[in-house]
Specification:
The complex is a heterodimer of chains A (about 450) and B (about 475). Chain A has 15 helices and 16 strands. Chain A is α/β, with parallel strands linked by helices and about 450 residues long. The mean pLDDT of chain A is about 95. Chain B folds into 3 domains: about 60 residues, no CATH class; about 260 residues, 3-Layer(aba) Sandwich (Aspartate Aminotransferase, domain 2), CATH 3.40.640; about 120 residues, Aspartate Aminotransferase, domain 1. In chain B, about 35% of the residues lie in helices and about 10% in strands. Chain B has 16 helices and 13 strands. The chains are: A alpha/beta (about 450), B alpha/beta (about 475).
Chain lengths: ~450, ~475
């Protein structure tokens, strides 16, 4: 019904005539007859805006949204300040393209420069790119940054998010890179095994680890970094940006590349996307970074100006020798993260981080009292794993009935829990009482 | 203007979070951050105005004509944004169980089915986040196909010299060697060069059609046959799909796999460089290699996820840029079977209208019916006046028009590539035609003024060489 074509049928006919065509068919005669589609598309007829909205709303209502969310595992339900939505809805930002034309794109370019600065501050690094697709692809693309002629084998800790490992495996299938998983012990990377594996492999290029890891537990990142560097390999940390406001930075841990998913910085969980991959590195790795980078310069009158820079790394210049094929990235999500960080400020981010971990500890205590046992003893940030003797599905169904999305079932009787500043004491107490009732065999 | 770090003052903040209602637990000392964290200190009012200022220093499709060739900067319907803001879409966790995300799965299934019909494919994955990401995914399907057959000597991907830079870069990321073949004088694939390039080491060919000079390659069936006869597969880069929707289908041209840019062809906004979405479609025999989860079932029996038997794994976490997919589906629902070809027909009409109103003055790289975009060569103008494609592009900025794509494709000297899209009214095209003709005259009468254009923008031409030489990539605090 609508095609957003403004020109009327009469105007179209006039334009066809002026361009020298008898009809649309005549214009398309440059397409050989044997590849022309000679039937209408097998699609429903177009809808009016009102009908389209109704249909999409009806579809959206087939999803179940939960009032209380205790599930993380790569998608975190943090508070999103009102200003974030307002700024990121501005049409100048929403409808613009990659800022190739600097003279009319200073706003977008400056916003990316500010984003790069904030990501450098969070990670302690010198350089950040303008964004990547998500945390998993950022981790995968850190591998080619670390490889050289002698160092070809990538290592990843088995405590990294399994989704991230899967994406890394797929990328490594592409680049013909061997990817080796390092086993875990007590919920953290097994350092002895890592040291041995790296010692036996002169071709080790890098280790990718996650902090806090998939189970929510703090790894001894500094020690891991030392082991990796001793073996002549590079150290890549996949980090949680909210946790970074209170945790040792990747730079403090000696990381050569910091990557992660910026979703906690103001993006809704939204069934998995769009999210934000971030990548940051010391200056020595600057020219190996994939993706756009904005730099400060001056214009012909000496005014401060921003431009896309170091483009000699990129596909439109280097083609098959580029550091990556990435072109479109997640720019509006980077803007979202910037506005979020500016609104929260350092104190606000630390508050969100501290509340997230405080509540996780409260919930764990409450679940312990209710009868669940933590699987690991390591200190954790805002996620942790418990057993679930009554069965994960049964517990999660009981929670769902009360509008609560429980933790992620990892097996039939193991659950990964998560809290953020959004979870209240009251709802955590409610979760604990539902658990206690199930375990004791009584109704809550 | 000031950076956000240069406004506000220590102590200013927003009031966002309540007090913590449980006992405070701090990160253990051994794990805690020692480096100071500098972030802005601003009130909400200052923050809001800062970004309003930045917005005024930006130019989107909403601000004016944006004929950026190969980028399909069509109008982004606002209805898409409403749909993407529904709580039922924004509030669902990607790891909820299937029973509770039937709506999301329906969005995915309907989008896949619609794209299959438009592209002439049998299956789609919506996991890739962008066009280049789609290319990477599609080439991995081709790689997996050859590996699965035990045909490991197929290491080469053929790419025409007119291709986007992402094509060879994606091929390299998939471990392929890139074979570049020259284009004919008419911008189309040189069949003899292609025949000479294919062999038992050919994994596949990557091609756009219409090609990057805006022409429909008439020999397309021969091209795909040559590659297939040599045992290779054909990959369709959907960058230019906006020209042929409902008119001709990649699947019917002989392509085995395609990617589609939802942020070009299906009207989702570019967001200053993303997020986009680059779904990948394929013929039945490649379906078994698709990444991620595949939605099966229907509205009546319910939707369920399946994983393909020989899946390449995953190219992204979760289910792709989901809210971008929601926007694209909303657009597809509104267009329907009539609107889809109408959009393409008018995209091509608008381009040909502009082309024929300029071809007496500007040299057209290919003086024939174009598809949704056309390429001008400013080489003769530069020869005559010294004014380059860059100068004319910068001159357009003073008319409030976003410049066309410059210096692409690489096979045309001093190229300007214009893609008006179907969503521009005739008057806007006429104004741009007047502006381009005036710039031509200015180039002849007063070339100096164009060398220093633009004159009315917030900055003049930036020093790009200096930016790359003395890299300043972040703000530094002095404390």
């Amino acid at each position: 019904m609508g095609s957003f074509v403004p020109n009327t049928d009469r105007e179209q006919e006039e334009m066809l005539k002026e361009a020298g065509y008898k009809s649309f068919d005549d214009m398309f005669s440059c397409i050989p007859d044997e590849v022309r589609l000679k039937r209408p598309l097998n699609l429903p007829s177009g809808l009016s805006e009102m009908e389209a909205i109704r249909e999409m709303e009806e579809i959206s209502e087939k999803n179940v949204t939960f009032k209380h969310i205790f599930r993380g595992a790569g998608a975190y339900n943090h508070y999103i300040p009102a200003i974030v939505k307002s700024v990121t809805a501005k049409e100048e930002f929403v409808t613009t393209y990659t800022p190739y034309q600097a003279e009319i794109s200073q706003g977008v370019l400056q916003s990316i420069f500010e984003y790069q600065t904030m990501m450098c501050e969070l990670t302690g690094m010198d350089v950040a790119n303008a964004s990547h697709y998500d945390g998993a692809t950022a981790a995968a693309e850190s591998i080619p940054m670390c490889k050289d002629r002698k160092h070809k084998v990538a290592y990843v800790s088995s405590t990294v998010h399994p989704g991230t490992i899967q994406v890394m495996e797929t990328y490594c299938f592409g680049s013909n890179t061997k990817l080796v998983q390092v086993p875990s012990k007590d919920g953290v990377t097994d350092m002895d095994k890592l040291a041995k594996m790296l010692k036996d492999d002169p071709e080790a290029a890098c280790l990718v680890m996650q902090q806090p890891n998939f189970y929510g537990i703090y790894e001894d990142a500094t020690k891991l970094g030392e082991i990796v560097h001793e073996a002549g390999a590079k150290f890549v940390m996949s980090v949680n940006p909210i946790a970074l406001s209170v945790m040792k930075t990747p730079a403090e841990c000696g990381a050569d590349v910091a990557v992660g998913d910026g979703q906690p910085l103001g993006m809704p969980i939204a069934y998995g996307g769009p999210y934000l991959g971030f990548m940051a590195a010391p200056k020595s790795m600057m020219r190996k970074l994939p993706g756009r980078i904005v730099g400060e310069t001056t214009d012909d009158k000496g005014n401060r100006a921003y431009v896309l820079t170091l483009q000699a790394r990129e596909q439109h210049i280097r083609r098959e020798k580029a550091s990556s094929n990435i072109c479109s990235n997640q720019a509006l999500c980077a803007l979202t993260a910037s506005v979020y960080m500016a609104a929260m400020g350092a104190d606000g981010m630390k508050e969100a981080a501290t509340q997230s971990t405080s509540k996780a500890h409260y919930l764990m205590d409450a679940l312990k009292k209710a009868g669940l046992k933590p699987m690991f003893s390591g200190e954790f940030f805002n996620e942790f794993i418990t057993d679930c003797p009554c069965g994960s599905d049964k517990l999660l169904d009981a929670l769902a009935e009360k509008g609560i999305l429980g933790g992620l079932p990892l097996t039939e009787n193991v659950v990964l829990w998560c809290t953020t500043e959004m979870n209240t004491k009251e709802e955590m107490d409610q979760v604990a009482s539902i658990v206690a009732a199930l375990i004791s065999g009584k109704e809550a | 203007m000031d950076l956000i770090f240069e406004i506000g003052s220590e102590g200013r903040k927003l009031s966002l979070l309540p007090k913590c209602d449980v006992p405070e637990v701090k990160v253990p000392e051994s794990q805690s951050r020692k480096t100071a964290l500098h972030l802005p200190h601003v009130s909400e009012n200052e923050l809001s105005r800062h970004y309003s200022k930045l917005a005024k220093r930006s130019h989107g499709v909403n601000d004016g004509f944006y004929p950026l060739g190969s980028c399909t900067m069509k109008y982004n319907p606002k209805v898409n944004e409403i749909a993407a803001s529904f709580k039922g879409f924004t509030g669902v966790h990607p790891l909820q169980n299937e029973r509770t995300v039937q709506g999301s799965m329906e969005v995915i299934k309907k989008t896949e089915d619609t794209l299959c019909e438009i592209a002439g494919m049998d299956a789609f994955t919506l996991q890739p986040a962008a066009g280049a990401h789609g290319e990477f995914t599609g080439l991995l399907l081709i790689k997996a196909y050859h590996v699965d057959r035990g045909d490991t000597k197929r290491t080469k991907i053929i790419v025409p010299d007119s291709a986007h830079g992402t094509n060879p870069a994606s091929a390299a990321m998939c471990g392929f060697d890139v074979v570049s073949i020259p284009s004919q004088d008419d911008g189309c694939v040189d069949l003899d060069a292609l025949r000479g390039a294919v062999g038992d080491d050919t994994a596949g060919l990557m091609l756009t059609n219409p090609n990057t000079v805006g022409l429909f390659d008439k020999n397309i069936l021969q091209i795909t046959k040559i590659v297939h006869d040599a045992g290779g597969l054909c990959y369709y880069d959907g960058a230019n799909l906006n020209a042929v929707m409902g008119i001709a289908r990649p699947g019917d041209m002989g392509f085995d796999a395609v990617h589609i840019n939802l942020h070009k062809t299906f009207s989702t906004p570019h967001g200053g460089g993303g997020p986009g979405a680059g779904p990948v479609g394929c013929k039945e025999f490649l379906k078994q290699f698709l990444p991620g989860h595949h939605v099966a079932g229907d509205e009546n029996e319910g939707f369920r996820y399946e994983i393909e038997t020989k899946s390449i794994g995953a190219v992204k976490m979760f289910h792709g840029n989901f809210l971008v997919i929601v926007r694209a589906l909303t657009y597809m629902l509104m267009l329907g079977k009539e609107g889809v070809p109408e959009a393409s027909s008018n995209a091509v009409l608008n381009a040909n209208y502009m082309r024929t109103k300029l071809d007496d003055l500007y040299e057209m790289a290919y003086d024939t019916t174009c598809m949704h975009e056309f390429v001008m060569s400013l080489e003769p103008l530069k020869h005559k006046t010294g004014v380059s494609a860059l100068d004319v592009a910068k001159g357009l900025l003073d008319y409030g028009i976003h410049p066309p794509t410059m210096y692409f494709p690489l096979i045309v000297e001093e190229a300007l590539m214009i893609e008006p899209t179907e969503t521009e009214p005739k008057e806007v095209l006429d104004e741009a035609i007047v502006a381009l003709r005036a710039l031509y005259k200015e180039a002849t009468d007063n070339p100096e003024a164009l060398h220093s254009a633009p004159h009315n923008t917030v900055i003049g031409r930036p020093d790009e060489v200096g930016a790359a030489r003395n890299t300043v990539l972040r703000y530094q605090w002095t404390d």
